[in-house]
Amino acid sequence: MKSSKIKDIALKFFTIHGYEGASLSQIADNVGIKKQSLYAHFKGKDDLFLQVLQDAKEAELSSKLQYLSKVGTQHPKADLYGYLQLVIDLFQQSEQLKFWLRMSFFPPLHLAAAINEEVIDTETKIQTVIESKFQDWIDAKAIMEDEALIPTLAFSAVVDSIMLELAYGNDEKRLNDKLNASWTVFWRGISKL
Asked: What is the pTM of this model?
């Protein structure tokens, strides 16, 4: 029995039921093993949960960084809007990233500090790359001249509003309305008229 299969099943239970609602017995039953056999792979529920969380974090980070690695200096409007669409697609289509999103907003209390550290680490890594992209666009005179941190943080606020809608809402129209309104105002603020 591989740890990866256990983590795949655990991901489904943690995503649907949260930490508290997912039981190791249910996970073991769905894997086809006895609960005690889980301890050959994981120290306990916390360890299993945090390993599933770490995998989800890496999936988010690698997807976003891969997208950003292909972003050049000539098309900031298309690249930034594409990033927003990527965020929506990732969190609507990937079970791992639904889990990551849910746990970043609703962490189990006893693991909240550890999860918050992981979330901040991810956001810091992504922000660093996005800030360098904004600096490249400023240097290329593709957007208004400013300190790169300013549009970076403003863009992060647009992303955060989309993430909040994905976490709490289940209304595609509201999500698209929020995306279009926040994007329009953001782009108007940084574009060269």
From this structure: 0.93
